[in-house]
């Protein structure tokens, strides 16, 4: 696999999601969870979606229960929570493993591209995929989506 565009997901409402459909657009991929201290970052992610979405950015939330079992909900419950509590309108995938040998193929590719140390260490780890499908940046959970570090990288990628 040569780029992030070579992977597919299933959306939270069980439809195919081909990363190729995002070719020509930067994508901020974030593993998310409902019961995490970082969960309020959904607000910041939605703001990025509203601000930069019209310019081409795709924010993609990937629910995962890998860290602290902080996403035990089903996909319909996750979707309702995100919409009701945070007004999330950006796309969400079905629940995925993001670490270890059973991690989704995109996350395995990221670890191969950037080294095992680049794998998420907790919920709300962020990866910026460039328009060409290359890995452009990675930020740990503590770096807020609206930080200058991330918005600067997004603006450059746009």
UniProtKB/TrEMBL annotation:
Keyword presence, Signal? no
CDD domains documented for this protein: GSH_Peroxidase
> Record's SUPFAM superfamilies?
Thioredoxin-like
Alphabetically, which GO biological process terms does the record hold? Answer: cellular response to oxidative stress
The molecular function GO annotations come to: peroxidase activity
Q: Which UniProt keywords apply?
A: Oxidoreductase, Peroxidase
Domain Thioredoxin, chain residue ranges per copy: 1-158
Show the PROSITE patterns listed in the entry: GLUTATHIONE_PEROXID_1, GLUTATHIONE_PEROXID_3, THIOREDOXIN_2
Q: Cite the active-site annotation.
A: 36
PANTHER family for the chain: GLUTATHIONE PEROXIDASE
Q: Which family does it belong to?
A: Belongs to the glutathione peroxidase family.
Protein name per UniProt: Glutathione peroxidase
What organism does the record attribute this protein to? Reyranella soli
